[in-house]
Amino acid sequence: MPHADSSLVPPEITSKAEFWNHVRDQLQHLLADQGHWVTNLANASSLIYHALLAFKPHFGTGDRAVNWCGEQPGPRPYSRARFSDTLMAGFYLLSSLFPFPRFIGVHSRDQSTATTNENTLLLGPFYGKPACQFINVSPARARGVCADAFLQQKTVIIPNVDEYPGHIACDGDTKSEIVCPLILQNGNHQVVLGVLDLDCLGLGGFDEEDKLGLEAIADLIVKSCDW
């Protein structure tokens, strides 16, 4: 099967539980025999984004589809939010996970600490509009949904980002958000590597079923990558 076909959703899949199980199964095949986190997270973000658009029973395409290059549809009431309104699916990772630069550009900043700050999440592979380049997760200065999910080590669902204290508006069109931490079990210790972040143009875009599905996918990703 061509790799791109993994984002297709069979018509017999009608529930969210079935959908997320299907996405996880497809992702497991994509991640097989590949351990590099950059490659795996790139495919994961693309698969999640396009599978959401293809899930017609709840979300679908057509006049509800995301057009990230142009005008976006307006917000919808809570009960009518659709995954087709998802405008960003991607990852923020600890800066220390990024490789130290081999070649320094003319306009680069001091690289001695740029990729080793444990209090900073850097933008990783994602699918959607341009996003915030970094997020401060220092307990004294952290703010926003991604920072809270990272520090609390639990998934955070925000039905309306305009009502969330400290929300970082990377895209003013975002109306709801879900952020799932990537947690690695290292012996007796847990290490939070980063977060999986989904933004939606509709209010109330995500619920508990999405939380369970994304947490299973996050667990698969963490266990499939070399960190």
Topology:
Elements lengths: L15 H16 L5 H18 L31 E9 L25 E9 L5 E3 L8 H8 L3 E3 L17 E11 L2 E12 L7 H17 L3
Antiparallel strand pairs: 1-2, 1-6, 2-3, 4-5, 5-6
Helix pairs in contact: 1-2, 1-4
Radius of gyration: 17 Å
H and E string: HHEEEHEEEH
Structural class determined from secondary elements: alpha+beta
Q: Major sheet: order of its strands?
A: 3-2-1-6-5-4
- Spatial gap, N to C terminus: 28 Å
Describe this structure in words.
This protein is of the alpha+beta class. The protein contains four helices and six strands; from the N terminus they run ααβββαβββα. It has helices at residues 16-31, 37-54, 145-152, 208-224; strands spanning 86-94, 120-128, 134-136, 156-158, 176-186, 189-200. The radius of gyration is 17 Å and the shape is globular. Mean pLDDT is 83; it is low at 61-80.
In short:
The protein is an alpha+beta fold and 227 residues long.
Features of the shown structure:
227 residues; alpha+beta; six-stranded antiparallel β-sheet; 4 helices; globular
